[in-house]
Amino acid sequence: MALKATVLKARLSISDMDRGYYQEHAFSLAQHPSETPNRIMVRLLAFMLNASETLAFSKGLSDEGEPELSERDLTGDITLWVAFGQPDEKWLRKASAQAKAVKLYTYGGRSVPLWLAQNKAALARLPELEIWEFSEEDLDTLTDWFERSMTFQCSITEGVLYLSKDDDALTITPIRIKDKT
Question: Which of 29, 62, 122, 176 is the most buried (most CB within 10 A)?
């Protein structure tokens, strides 16, 4: 019998001073049985950094042909494809062919430089691709906030996320690894 996804609830109050975006978001998020809390938190951080009225999570993680997080224009074309982890270069090439912009948010500590070295030449050929990394230390601290129902306040200034939950506060600085060219 296949395990079912766990439904998580998230409420985010986002004040992105860099983009002039100020909005509240409330949504359900499916956590696949194999998905770690760290990965869920990376997905939430990526949402905060790219938040818009049209940014949306896919219905599940198993749909190979669709982005897990994307923004579409009024015609249904993908304007932003957001990927996570250390995906196969072929998959990123496919995303680059289908979207105007692709952002990859990677994590995993020491495995990230190895993955980058193995894929350096192929990733350089993808002009639509930006790659960002979250430090293992930041994610471990943020994962302590993981619950089935989460409420965060997020301020973004100069690319730095200032998060608060109840009386706790945390600063997360994504590291830019590759710019869109």
Answer: 29
Query: Tokens 């995906």 — which residue?
Result: 87
The answer to whether 76 and 21 are in contact (CB under 8 A) is no
The structure's pTM equals: 0.93
Please report how many Cα atoms fall inside a 13 Å half-sphere around the Cα of residue 136, on the Cβ side.
6
Name the helix (H) or strand (E) containing 141. helix 136-143
Chunked into runs of 10 residues, the chain (181 residues) has average pLDDT values of 81 97 94 91 97 88 76 94 94 94 94 94 94 95 95 97 96 92 69
Q: Which residues pair with 167 in a beta bridge?
A: none
Residue 80 and residue 108 in contact, taking contact as beta carbons nearer than 8 Å? no
70, 80 contact by CB (below 8 A): yes
> β-strands 129-133, 21-31: how paired?
unpaired
Q: What angle do CA 45, 47, 51 make, to 5 degrees?
A: 130
| Cα–Cα distance, 31 to 126 (Å, whole number) | 29
Q: What is the DSSP letter of 56?
A: E
Question: Where does 25-135 have alpha helices with state H?
Answer: 37-50, 89-98, 111-124
